[in-house]
Amino acid sequence: MAKQARAAATRHQVLEGAALSFEKLGYGGASLSGILSYADVTKGALYFHFESKEALAWAVIKEQHAMAMLAAQRVLATAQSPMEAILLCAKEMARQLLTEPIVRAGVRLTLELGTSRGPATDPYIDWTDTLVALAGKAREAGELRATVDPVALARFLVSSFTGMQLVSEALTGRSDLYERLADMWALLLPSIASPDMLPRLLELAALRDDVAS
Predict the structure, then answer these.
(1) Burial (CB count <10 Å: 0-12, 13-18, 19+), residue 103
(2) CA-CA distance, 174 to 35, in Å (whole number)?
(3) What is the pLDDT of residues 78-89, one digit of tens each?
(4) Which domain does 78 fall in, by range?
(5) Quick one: which of 58, 72, 70 has its CA closest to 158?
(6) CATH number, position 107
């Protein structure tokens, strides 16, 4: 068991080093020598777990996806309503981008490698499917206006958040990401949320607290 624990710890150390390299340099700019430097492990330890830079990139994407899905499950277990869950999932995604190198690297890699359906696009597809289900429940519960199409809303939210975090990264290193997210909701919610839910949702959207801890 101790040997397995050490192997798991080393694998995670390699993933974190790879994430730092991919986040800063992208897939094309990252090298195995640079990843070794960031990870502070031997070449043998790296190759024991990953056969190539490509394998490392897919592993970072998979880990980022797992982290996002786990966070979404925690949000769904505690949110008071489907619409609150939608807002809290977006806020948790923002928190992960600000605090987790693996998430930042995974998002960058999905954009660089995601030219077709596969591991690089799975996070966006699963994120969209989760939002479609939540939006459908929100409309059934009267939290969304009856005219709102859950599929169209989910696609819009995923695309808007992705573009928003990219602009935030380019202009401020994502230091204004929470502010931009609050702006998005302030503009969008009045046109999609039921009047009864709107004040609560706007209040929630303006809060900057972290969701998952």
Answers:
(1) buried
(2) 24
(3) 999 999 999 999
(4) 57-212
(5) 72
(6) 1.10.357.10
